[in-house]
Design goal:
The protein is mainly α. It has a domain of 29 residues. It is built from two helices and no strands. It is rod-shaped, with a radius of gyration of 22 Å.
C-alpha cells in the first residue's frame, strides 16, 4: 500500500516536528512567564518590544492634573 521509503519519511518528519516542539515551546513559555511575572530582563523586554519606561501600574503614568 505505502512504500517503506515514504513511511520512513513521514515518521522522520513527525519525529523532527516533535523534537522541535519539545525544544522551542519551553523556551518561549519561559520568556512569556518572565514578562508576565515582571521578572523579565531589559534584553527580554527589548526582545518582546516592550517599553521598560512605564510602571507596572498604568494609572501611575497618567498626569491626572493636566486638562
Amino acid at each position: 500500500m505505502f512504500s517503506l521509503k515514504s513511511v520512513r519519511r513521514v515518521a522522520f518528519f513527525i519525529f523532527l516536528t516533535g523534537l522541535l516542539l519539545i525544544l522551542v515551546v519551553p523556551a518561549f513559555s519561559e520568556k512569556i512567564t518572565a514578562v508576565y511575572d515582571g521578572a523579565a530582563t531589559e534584553q527580554d523586554a527589548e526582545w518582546w518590544n516592550l517599553s521598560t519606561t512605564y510602571s507596572a501600574n498604568w494609572t501611575d503614568d497618567i498626569d491626572w492634573a493636566s486638562p
